[in-house]
C-alpha cells in the first residue's frame, strides 16, 4: 500500500509538473496544423487567382505547409521543455550542406519559378534559347522540353534558358516575311517592283494592314537587290515564305526578268 501511494504521489507530481506542458504541446500541434492547412489553402487560391502554373501551385503550397509544420513541431517540443536549439542548428547545417550540393538544381528551380510567374513563353510556342530552336512541349520546375523542327526532343535546364536571350517567334499574332530578290542591273526597277507587288496582292494570306514594304535594299556588284517584306499571321509565316519566293521566281521567268546568279538571295530574319 505504501508503494502504491508513493507511485500515485509521484504520478500526481508528474501530472502537475508536465500535464500543462503536454496539453499545451498537443494544443500547439492541433491548432498549428489547422493554421498550416488554412495557409496552404490560401496560398493555393492566391496563386491560382494570378494564373500561376498548377505545378508551381502544388509545389509552393506543399513546401509552405512542410515549413510551417516543422516550425510547429519545434514549438511543441519547446513547450515540453525539450531543448531545440541544437535541433535547429542541425537542421540549419543540413540545409546549408544540401543547398551547396544542389546549387545547380536550385538555380534551375529558381529559374523555373520565375518562368512560370512571368511566362516569357508557353507550351506550343516556337522559341530559340539555350542554343536550340523548337516548339515548347513542357515546362517543369527544373527543365523545359523542346521539339525541334526535325522532330528531336531537347531537354534544356531552366537556368540555361533564363541566363541568355530567349526569342519567342510565336508570341505575337503577326510576323514579317523578309525576302531579298536580286535582279540584273539592266532591269526596269519600277516594272520589277510592280510584278512583285502584283504577286503579293494575289495572296490573301498577306495582310494589307500593315502594308507590305517593297524597295531597293542594296546595289550589289552583280545585282540590284530588292527587299520584299510583307506581314502575315504567325501561323501562315512559313507557307507564305516558301510559296511567295516560288511565285516570284516563276513570274520573273514569265516576264523575262533577268535574275543573275545566284538566282534568289534570301535572308531569313529568325529561324523556325
Tell me the fraction of residues in β-strands, as a range. Answer: 15-25%
Order of helices and strands: HHHHEEEEHEEEHEEEH
**Domain module count:** 3
The percent range for helix content is 40-55%
Can you tell me the CATH architecture of the largest domain?
A: Orthogonal Bundle
| Strand segment count | 10
Structural class: alpha+beta
Uncertain spans? 263-272
- List the total number of helices: 7
- Reported by name, the CATH topology of the largest domain is Helix Hairpins
Which geometry do the CA atoms define?
Answer: rod-shaped
Strand order of the largest sheet: 4-3-2-1-5
Characterize the structure shown.
By secondary structure, this protein is of the alpha+beta class. It folds into three domains: 2-101, Helix Hairpins (Orthogonal Bundle); 120-168, SH3 type barrels (Roll); 174-255, 2-Layer Sandwich (Alpha-Beta Plaits). 53% of the residues lie in helices and 18% in strands. The chain is built from seven helices and ten strands. Strands 4-3-2-1-5 form a five-stranded antiparallel β-sheet.
Amino acid at each position: 500500500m505504501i508503494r502504491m501511494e508513493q507511485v500515485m504521489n509521484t504520478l500526481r507530481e508528474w501530472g502537475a509538473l508536465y500535464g500543462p506542458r503536454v496539453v499545451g504541446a498537443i494544443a500547439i500541434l492541433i491548432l498549428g496544423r489547422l493554421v498550416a492547412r488554412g495557409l496552404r489553402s490560401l496560398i493555393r487560391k492566391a496563386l491560382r487567382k494570378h494564373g500561376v502554373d498548377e505545378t508551381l501551385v502544388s509545389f509552393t503550397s506543399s513546401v509552405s505547409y512542410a515549413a510551417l509544420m516543422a516550425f510547429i513541431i519545434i514549438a511543441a517540443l519547446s513547450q515540453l521543455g525539450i531543448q531545440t536549439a541544437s535541433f535547429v542548428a542541425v537542421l540549419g547545417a543540413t540545409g546549408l550542406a544540401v543547398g551547396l550540393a544542389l546549387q545547380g538544381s536550385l538555380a534551375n528551380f529558381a529559374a523555373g519559378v520565375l518562368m512560370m510567374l512571368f511566362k516569357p513563353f508557353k507550351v506550343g510556342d516556337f522559341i530559340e534559347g539555350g542554343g536550340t530552336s523548337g516548339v515548347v512541349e513542357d515546362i517543369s520546375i527544373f527543365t523545359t522540353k523542346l521539339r525541334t523542327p526535325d522532330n528531336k526532343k531537347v531537354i534544356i535546364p531552366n537556368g540555361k534558358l533564363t541566363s541568355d536571350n530567349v526569342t519567342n517567334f510565336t508570341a505575337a499574332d503577326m510576323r514579317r516575311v523578309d525576302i531579298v530578290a536580286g535582279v540584273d542591273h539592266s532591269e526596269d526597277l519600277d516594272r520589277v517592283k510592280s510584278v512583285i507587288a502584283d504577286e503579293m496582292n494575289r495572296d490573301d494570306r498577306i495582310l494589307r494592314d500593315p502594308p507590305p514594304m517593297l524597295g531597293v535594299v542594296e546595289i550589289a556588284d552583280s545585282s540590284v537587290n530588292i527587299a520584299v517584306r510583307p506581314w502575315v499571321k504567325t501561323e501562315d509565316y512559313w507557307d507564305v515564305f516558301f510559296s511567295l519566293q516560288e511565285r516570284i521566281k516563276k513570274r520573273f521567268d514569265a516576264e523575262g526578268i533577268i535574275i543573275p546568279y545566284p538566282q534568289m538571295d534570301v535572308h531569313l530574319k529568325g529561324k523556325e
